[in-house]
Amino acid sequence: MNLGEYQTLEILRDTDPGLFLGDQHGNEVLLPNRYVPEQFEIGDKIEVFVYLDNEERPVATTDNPYITKGDFSLLRCNEVNKFGAFLDWGLVKELFCPFKEQAFKMKPGGWYLVYCYLDEETERLVASSKTNSFLDNSQLTVSKFEEVDIIVSHPSEFGMNVIVNKRHSGLVFKDDIFKDISVGDKLKGVVKKIRNDNKLNIALSQLGYRNIEPNAQVVLRELNDNNGFIPLHDKSDPEAIKEQLQMSKKSFKKAIGSLYKDRKIEIKSDGIYLK
Question: DSSP letters along 14-72, please?
């Protein structure tokens, strides 16, 4: 099982503690009773997130964590003990951040931008607030004027440092900040300049949000008008999307991507649900 990732697995058997799910390689994992859907058949496919429970055993959940493996997110520290900090990532078992992976000592109640990865020594999912360690500008995968996804990392005397496409570091200069932004904000940006040392100057993109926001509102309105569900998702036929929402599939995918990042919707195999 790929820890820290969403996976579509097959329901193999129903047992007292819950459903056992399997992948194509013969691996099995338990979906505890609290997450078992009301209606199911043996052989059905179900999308789950897999991580380790309190007994260090792989377990599946239908809950959506605030962060997945290979991603960055702003998380709240719930507790600190002699081993490290424990962060709320929306699941029963909290996400561990050892002291050695803390850029600054974490405190209960504080919010910290962290990266989630699989520690090879312990084979556990852990967090690190030393986010720069997971960024590399030696070989850029972006070009000038390209629209990019950015996450606000930390302030500097020149503006705001940002994470670009989850891979590179960049900087938004003060003169290019036209609205209030905070650490952890996920925004659209544009590569304004690539300097000789491969450092990226990023400008906030108003255009991207103007394109996405109206369509996101259309999707939300349709969900509210249909009891919080519409039978469309990112693999739906373009004609079905056009018929129900009067927008292209490309615009639809951008809209639901924005809503998903804002945790306003859930995307499942049968459609979209309002959270």
Answer: E-SSEEEEE-TTS-EEEEEGGG--SS--TT-EEEEEEEE-TTS-EEEESS--S--TT-E
